[in-house]
């Protein structure tokens, strides 16, 4: 399976990093997460529903929707916080720094020659960020512009994830046949296996994680 690549560019202030990345990644994960799966007699079905949670951003006027799972949220926020801390530490005396963070979905294929499993990435979403300080008099206007830009990108994500050309790995007929595709360790939901990694001036870190829905309210 070929890897689909998508990338987005933003200019932000330091405190905005985590909220912006979380809004984008949780929008994607909402479409890459299934309810808990039930395997029976060679077929698969859902034995629950996918709950949602509204998240109000504090640094810019936007509300997004994520899967209502504390376990999933905790797995996502860890590497995002580390990325934000690393990027802010890289800020130069001129108040600028650059970095990127990616959300990857992969199949854990069996390795060869006894080397263990090998991830085969089938979809990658990358956010490229540049930190730039702005004056207090410009902040409100710039944050509204950032919210507008983020709203536009999220709407574009909805088009991409619901496109007929968007292909996801097929599920197996049993959990054993599906566990290389789906993460089964999170209660009540079944996200496709994902990984988050980031690059900044001083860090390169991999943090392993594992139809159109209502995703966003633009304030």
Automatic annotation (TrEMBL):
One of its GO terms (cellular component) is phagophore assembly site. InterPro entries: ATG101. Belongs to the ATG101 family. Keywords: Autophagy. GO terms for molecular function: protein kinase binding. It comes from the Eukaryota. The keyword DNA damage does not apply. GO terms for biological process: autophagosome assembly. The keyword Nuclease does not apply. Pfam families: ATG101. This is Autophagy-related protein 101. It comes from Clonorchis sinensis (Chinese liver fluke).
């Amino acid at each position: 399976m070929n890897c689909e690549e998508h990338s987005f560019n933003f200019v932000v202030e330091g405190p905005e990093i985590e909220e912006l990345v979380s809004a984008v990644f949780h929008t994607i994960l909402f479409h890459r997460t299934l309810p808990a799966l039930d395997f029976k007699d060679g077929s698969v079905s859902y034995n629950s529903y996918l709950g949602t949670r509204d998240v109000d951003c504090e640094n810019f006027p936007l509300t997004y929707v994520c899967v209502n799972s504390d376990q999933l949220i905790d797995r996502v926020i860890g590497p995002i916080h580390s990325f934000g801390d690393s990027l802010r530490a890289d800020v130069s005396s001129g108040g600028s720094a650059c970095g990127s963070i990616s959300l990857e979905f992969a199949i854990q294929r069996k390795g060869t020659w006894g080397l263990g499993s090998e991830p085969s990435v089938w979809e990658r979403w990358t956010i490229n960020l540049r930190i730039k300080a702005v004056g207090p008099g410009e902040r409100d206007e710039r944050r509204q512009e950032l919210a507008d830009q983020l709203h536009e990108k999220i709407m574009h994500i909805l088009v991409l994830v619901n496109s007929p050309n968007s292909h996801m790995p097929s599920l197996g007929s049993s959990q054993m046949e599906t566990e290389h595709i789906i993460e089964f360790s999170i209660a009540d939901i079944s996200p496709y296996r994902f990984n988050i990694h980031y690059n900044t001036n001083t860090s390169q870190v991999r943090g392993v994680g594992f139809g159109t829905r209502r995703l966003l309210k633009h304030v």
